[in-house]
Specification:
The structure holds two protein chains of two kinds. Chain A is α+β, with helices and mostly antiparallel strands. The two termini of chain B are 20 Å apart. The chains are: A alpha+beta, B mainly alpha.
Chain lengths: 638, 362
C-alpha cells in the first residue's frame, strides 16, 4: 500500500476545539469527584482509614486468686487464647463467611449467627468474643486464614482455673460471661465476653477479684497482622483474696462426707470465721470458666440433688432433734423447769388428745424412763421435749429459736443465703390463712413440723451457745483484709443473747453427755484426746413448708450432727448434714473427723516452710496443656 | 526528508510534562513498595523511563511518514504476535499478555495500541471526506476489532477497551453523521447482553460491584472501597510521602501499578491530585495543539488518536479509583509501574514530536 500525504489541508479548528472541551470537561468532572472525597468527605474517610489500620485489642487483666487462710491456691489463672471478631474493619460477614468461621473454629453455625445478631447493635470498635479457651487447632485456623478472615484475631486471656476442681465449688462459685442485660445497663463498664464472678466467693467479692482490663492500640495490615504498637494501657490485675477456709479441714470434711449428698460447715465460734464449707454433690467450676455447653448446664440445673446449690447456706431442712438444744435452753432460761425436773418417758405421751410417740419406742419398743434435761438431751428423749413444748408454748419457742440464730439469715458474706423458717402462729395466719394448731407446737418442739434451718445456722447457734451466748456472724473473708483493700466490710460485731450460767452449764453438760456418756446418741463422735460435745438430729422429712416443692423421693431422713470442741472453751464447731441419711449416726463421724483434723493440725508439728511452698507450686502447676504464646505465635507466623 | 538536528525540533515542553508525571510515578512507586517485597521496583521503573525517553528522542528524529508506511506489515505482525501469544505464550498469573525476552517481559498489546493509532492515521490520510461511510465504519471496526478480540482473550479486557477510543476519535475527527452515531449506540446497547455472556465471572462481578457498590464490601468492591478510603483520607494536603497507611499496610491491591493514583492521592492530597491532573491536561492539550498545526491529515490523525487513548486511560484509571468507572486493568500512563506502558507512551510522544517538528510555522 502506497501511502501519500498531501500537505495541503488543515484540520478544522472546531474539531480540535471539540476534543479540547471534552477533555477539559472530563477533567473538571474528575476534579469534582476527587474534591468530593478529599475535601467533602475527608473526615469520614480518614476515620475509616484509621479504623482500617488501628485495632483496639483488650488486654485482659488477670483475676485475683482465691487463697485459703494459709495462702494455698483455691482459684488461679492460666494463660489461654480467645478468638475475637474485630468488626471495625470488616463489613458484615457473608453467610459463607459465617459458615467458614464456624467450621474452622468448630462452633455451631446457628449459635455463631445468633451471637453476631445479638452483638450487631454494639459499637463496631468493640470486638466480639467468638470462642474462649481456643485450642491449638483454633489458633492455627485463625493464623492461617488471615487473608480470608482478616477480622479474626486472637488475644491472650487469663482463664480461670480451679486446681481443686470439685472441692468447695459451691463456696468458691465460678466465673462466666457477663450477661447482656448487665452490659446494656447504662454506665456499665462491661463488654461482651467479659468475665465476672457468679455465685459464691467469686460473685460476692467480684469487685476485689476482678482487675481492670487494659488496651493495646496496634497497627495492623490488611491481613490483620500486627505491624506496630501505638499505645498501651496496662491491665491492672485483680487482688488476691484470702479466705478463712483452712484447706486441710476442708479436705477432711470433703473426704468424710464422701459421695453422700449433704453439707458440712466448720466455724470458729470465737470469731465466726468459716474454716470449712462443703456441699455435695459438687460440680467442677472449671467447666464454667470456658463457655459451658448448654447440655452440661441443663444437667446441672435439673439434677435433683442440686449440685449448683451451696447446701451449707441454702439447704433449708428440719433440724430434728438438734432443735432440742434450743428447747432445753428455752425452758431453763425461762425457768419453766429446773434442770432436775423429771419427766417419765413411757415411749409415748398424749397431749391435746393426741398420742405422740418417742423415736426409741417407734423403732425398738424401748422407753427412756425417768429423764431430766441432761439425760433427755443425751438420749434425745422426744417425750421429755414434747412435754417441754406444751409447757413452753410456741411463742417462747419462737423467741428463743430466733434469739439463738435460727430461722433467719446469719449474714454470711456469700450470696443467696437462705433464711430458713421457725413457724409461729402469725406465720401460719399469714401464709396459710388459718389458726395455729396447738399440736403443731409439739412437733416444732422436737425440730419437726415447719421448722427449717440451714447448716450454717445450726453451726452458728451451737457456737453461740457453746461460747456462752455470743454469736459471731459467720464470714469467709478476713475483715482486716477487706479494709486493706478499701472495701467496707459487713459489720460482724458479735451479737449477744445473754444466757444464765446455770442454763449454759446444764445444756452444755447435756451436749457433753451426748458424746461422752453411755447411752448418748453421739458417742461415735468420741475421739481420744479431744473433748467433743454435740447433738444429733434425725429429721424425718423435709419441713412442711417445703413439702409442696419437694418430690416424694426426697421424703427420707435427714441426718444431722452439730458438734464442738473443746467442750469448755470451744474453738471449732462443726455442723454436718447428710441428706437421705436414714439416721443421725451417719453424720456424727463427719463432724468428728473435721474436729480431729483441726486438733491434729494444731498439735502436730507445723510442716516445714519449703514443703508448704511445694504444695502451692504443685497446685498452680495443674494447668491444661496450653502452649506459651510466643512459641505459638512464632510457629504460626512463619 | 532528512533535516539536520535542531534542539528546537524537540518538544521540550511535552517531554518535560511527561518526565514530570513519570517522576511523580517513580516517587509513589518508591513510597508504596518501600517495605514490601517489591522494594526496588522504582529502580526498574527509572531504567524503563530512561530507555523509553531515549527511544522517544530517536523516534522523534524519524519522519513519521516512514513509520506510517510500515503500518500494513506492522499491523500484520501485531495480529500474528497476539495470536501466537494466545496459542503459544505461557501464562503469567492466568493471562497470556507477556512476551518474554530473556529477563525482560513485554506486554505486546501496549505496542499494538500504537500500531492501531498509526493504522487509523494512515487510513484517514487519503480519505478527504466530510463524513465517514458505512464502509469506513465496518473496515475500521474489523481493523480494530481483530486485535481487540485477541487482547480481550488473553484476557486483558482493559487494554482491549483502549482500542475503542482510538477508532472512535479517528471517526469523530474524520466526521460522522448523527444517523451513524445513533445506529452505533443502538448496536452497542443491543450488543451488551451478548458481551455480558462473554465476560468472565470476575469481570461480571466487577461490573455488578460498579452498579451496586454497597452490596459486597468483601470481595470485588473491596478494592474500590479501599482506594476511596485512601483518596478520601488524603484530604487537602495529603498524609505525606511514605505515610499513606492504606497503601503501606496493604489495603490497596496493586498499589504500585493500576492503583498508583490512589496511593498518590492519599499521600499528596487534593493538591497533588490537582497538580498531576493539570500536568495530564497540559500534555493532552499540547498533543491536540500539535494536531492543529500538523502538516497533514496523517499527522493530525495520529496526534488525535494518541491524545484520545491517553485521555481515555487517564480518565478511566483515575475515575475508577473513586468508583466512577468499574475496575478494569487499565494502567495510568506514565505513572503506573510497567515498562510496556511507558515504552508505548514515550514512543507515541516521540512520534508526536516528529509530527510537531514538521508543523506549519507562520
Amino acid at each position: 500500500m502506497e501511502v501519500r500525504f498531501p500537505s495541503d489541508e488543515r484540520p478544522p479548528a472546531w474539531k480540535i476545539a471539540f476534543f479540547q472541551y471534552a477533555i477539559a470537561a472530563s477533567f473538571l468532572g474528575l476534579l469534582a469527584g476527587y474534591w468530593r472525597y478529599q475535601i467533602g468527605q475527608h473526615a469520614q474517610y480518614l476515620d475509616l482509614a484509621e479504623r482500617n489500620r488501628i485495632r483496639n485489642l483488650p488486654v485482659i487483666a488477670p483475676r485475683g486468686r482465691i487463697l485459703d487462710r494459709e495462702g494455698r491456691v483455691l482459684a488461679d489463672n492460666f494463660p489461654a487464647f480467645s478468638v475475637l471478631l474485630m468488626r471495625e474493619s470488616a463489613a458484615s460477614l457473608s453467610p459463607d463467611g459465617i459458615a467458614g468461621i464456624a467450621r474452622g473454629l468448630q462452633l455451631d453455625p446457628e449459635e455463631l449467627r445468633h451471637t453476631l445478631e445479638r452483638t450487631a447493635s454494639l459499637p463496631r470498635f468493640q470486638p466480639v468474643l467468638l470462642k474462649q479457651a481456643a485450642t491449638l487447632e483454633d489458633i492455627s485456623f485463625v493464623e492461617s486464614h488471615r487473608v480470608e478472615y482478616p477480622e479474626l484475631d486472637l488475644i491472650q486471656v487469663q482463664q480461670r482455673l480451679y486446681p481443686k476442681h470439685q472441692v468447695m465449688a459451691a463456696l468458691l462459685g465460678y466465673v462466666g460471661e457477663v450477661p447482656e442485660e448487665m452490659i446494656a445497663k447504662l454506665g456499665s463498664n462491661y463488654r461482651p465476653g467479659d468475665v465476672m464472678g457468679k455465685f459464691g466467693v467469686e460473685g460476692e467479692y467480684n469487685q476485689i477479684l476482678s482487675g481492670r482490663d487494659g488496651m493495646r492500640r496496634v497497627v495492623v495490615n490488611s491481613r490483620g497482622q500486627e505491624v506496630g504498637l501505638l499505645s498501651t494501657i496496662n491491665a491492672l490485675a485483680g487482688n488476691d483474696l484470702r479466705l478463712t477456709i483452712d484447706l486441710d479441714l476442708q479436705m477432711a470434711a470433703e473426704a468424710s462426707l464422701g459421695d453422700r449428698p449433704g453439707a458440712v460447715v466448720a466455724l470458729d465460734p470465737r470469731t465466726g470465721e468459716v474454716l470449712a464449707m462443703v456441699s455435695h454433690p459438687s460440680f467442677d467450676p472449671n467447666d464454667f470458666a470456658k463457655r459451658i455447653d448448654p447440655k452440661e448446664w441443663n444437667d446441672l440445673l435439673n439434677d435433683p440433688m442440686k449440685p449448683l446449690m451451696n447446701k451449707a447456706i441454702q439447704a433449708q431442712l428440719a433440724p430434728g432433734s438438734v432443735f432440742k438444744i434450743v428447747m432445753a435452753t428455752a425452758v431453763l432460761e425461762t425457768g419453766t423447769v429446773k434442770p432436775d425436773y423429771i419427766v417419765h418417758c413411757s415411749g409415748a405421751v398424749t397431749i391435746y388428745g393426741h398420742l405422740y410417740h418417742d423415736w426409741v419406742f417407734q423403732g425398738k419398743r424401748k422407753v427412756h424412763g425417768a429423764v431430766n434435761v441432761h439425760s433427755a438431751i443425751r438420749e434425745s428423749c422426744d417425750v421429755f421435749f414434747y412435754t417441754m413444748g406444751k409447757m413452753l408454748g410456741i411463742d417462747k419457742i419462737d423467741y428463743f429459736a430466733r434469739g439463738l440464730g435460727l430461722g433467719a439469715r446469719t449474714g454470711i458474706d456469700l450470696p443467696s443465703e437462705a433464711p430458713g423458717l421457725i413457724p409461729s402462729p402469725e406465720w401460719v395466719q399469714r401464709v396459710f390463712k388459718r389458726k395455729w394448731y396447738a399440736g403443731e407446737t409439739i412437733s416444732v418442739a422436737i425440730g419437726q413440723g415447719a421448722d427449717a434451718v440451714t447448716p450454717i445456722q445450726l453451726a452458728n447457734t451451737f457456737g453461740g451457745i457453746a461460747t456462752g451466748g455470743v454469736f459471731h456472724r459467720p464470714h469467709v473473708a478476713f475483715q482486716d483484709q477487706l479494709r486493706a483493700l478499701g472495701e467496707n466490710p459487713p459489720d460482724i460485731s458479735p451479737r449477744d443473747f445473754p444466757l444464765s450460767d446455770e442454763t449454759l452449764a446444764a445444756v452444755k453438760s447435756g451436749m457433753w453427755a451426748v458424746v461422752n456418756e453411755g447411752g448418748g446418741t453421739g458417742v461415735a463422735a468420741r475421739c481420744p484426746g479431744i473433748d467433743i460435745s454435740g447433738k444429733t438430729g434425725t429429721a424425718q422429712v423435709v419441713s412442711e413448708a417445703l413439702q409442696q416443692s419437694a418430690k416424694s423421693s426426697e421424703y427420707r431422713n435427714t441426718a444431722w450432727f452439730v458438734g464442738y470442741a473443746p467442750s469448755d472453751k470451744p474453738e471449732i464447731v462443726v455442723a454436718a448434714l447428710v441428706q437421705r441419711g436414714e439416721h443421725s449416726t451417719v453424720a456424727v463421724p463427719i463432724a468428728r473427723d473435721v474436729i480431729k483434723a483441726y486438733f491434729d493440725k494444731k498439735a502436730g508439728p507445723k510442716p516445714p516452710k519449703n514443703q508448704m511452698e511445694t504444695q502451692v507450686r504443685v497446685l498452680s502447676q495443674v494447668q491444661p496443656a496450653t502452649p506459651p504464646r510466643a512459641a505459638v505465635a512464632a510457629s504460626m507466623r512463619q | 526528508m532528512s533535516k539536520s538536528f535542531r534542539a528546537s525540533d524537540i518538544d521540550w515542553f511535552l517531554l518535560g510534562l511527561a518526565l514530570a508525571i513519570a517522576a511523580v510515578g517513580v516517587m509513589e512507586i518508591y513510597s508504596t513498595t518501600l517495605h514490601s517485597p517489591l522494594a526496588g521496583q522504582y529502580r526498574r521503573q527509572i531504567y524503563w523511563i530512561l530507555l523509553s525517553f531515549v527511544l522517544a528522542l530517536v523516534v522523534s528524529r524519524l519522519d513519521y511518514h516512514i513509520v506510517l508506511e510500515q503500518t500494513p506489515w506492522l499491523y500484520g505482525i501485531s495480529v500474528l504476535l497476539l495470536a501466537g501469544l494466545l496459542l503459544l505464550g505461557h501464562s503469567i498469573a492466568g493471562t497470556r499478555r507477556w512476551l518474554q525476552f530473556g529477563p525482560m517481559s513485554f506486554q505486546v498489546s501496549e505496542i499494538v495500541k500504537l500500531i492501531i493509532i498509526l493504522v487509523v492515521a494512515a487510513y484517514f490520510a487519503d480519505r478527504r471526506i466530510k463524513a465517514v461511510t458505512w464502509g469506513d465504519l465496518v473496515k475500521l471496526g474489523i481493523v480494530g476489532g481483530i486485535p481487540a478480540i485477541l487482547v480481550a482473550l488473553e484476557p486483558d479486557l482493559g487494554t482491549a477497551l483502549t482500542f475503542i477510543p482510538i477508532i472512535a476519535a479517528g471517526i469523530i475527527f474524520a466526521g460522522i453523521r448523527w444517523q451513524h452515531i445513533a445506529v452505533l449506540c443502538l448496536t452497542g446497547i443491543l450488543a451488551l447482553p451478548v458481551g455480558w455472556h462473554f465476560l468472565r465471572p470476575y469481570q461480571r462481578e466487577r461490573l455488578m460491584t460498579f452498579v451496586h457498590p454497597a452490596q459486597n464490601t468483601q470481595t470485588s468492591s473491596y478494592q474500590v472501597t479501599q482506594t476511596k478510603i485512601a483518596i478520601g483520607s488524603g484530604g487537602f494536603w495529603g498524609k505525606g510521602l511514605g505515610n499513606g497507611t492504606q497503601s503501606r499496610l496493604g489495603f490497596i491491591p496493586v498499589s504500585h501499578a493500576d492503583s498508583i493514583f490512589a496511593v498518590f492521592a492519599e499521600e499528596q492530597g487534593f493538591v497533588g491530585t490537582l497538580l498531576v491532573l493539570l500536568l495530564y491536561f497540559a500534555l493532552l492539550l499540547r498533543l491536540l495543539d500539535g494536531a492543529q498545526m500538523a502538516p497533514d491529515r496523517a499527522g493530525a490523525f495520529f496526534l488525535v488518536g494518541l491524545a484520545a487513548v491517553l485521555f481515555f486511560q487517564v480518565v478511566i484509571n483515575t475515575g475508577m479509583m473513586i468508583g466512577v468507572f468499574p475496575i478494569t486493568g487499565i494502567p495510568l500512563p506514565l505513572m503506573s509501574q510497567g515498562g510496556s506502558s511507558l515504552l508505548f507512551t514515550f514512543l507515541g510522544l516521540g512520534l508526536a514530536m516528529s509530527v510537531r517538528a514538521r508543523r506549519y510555522v507562520n
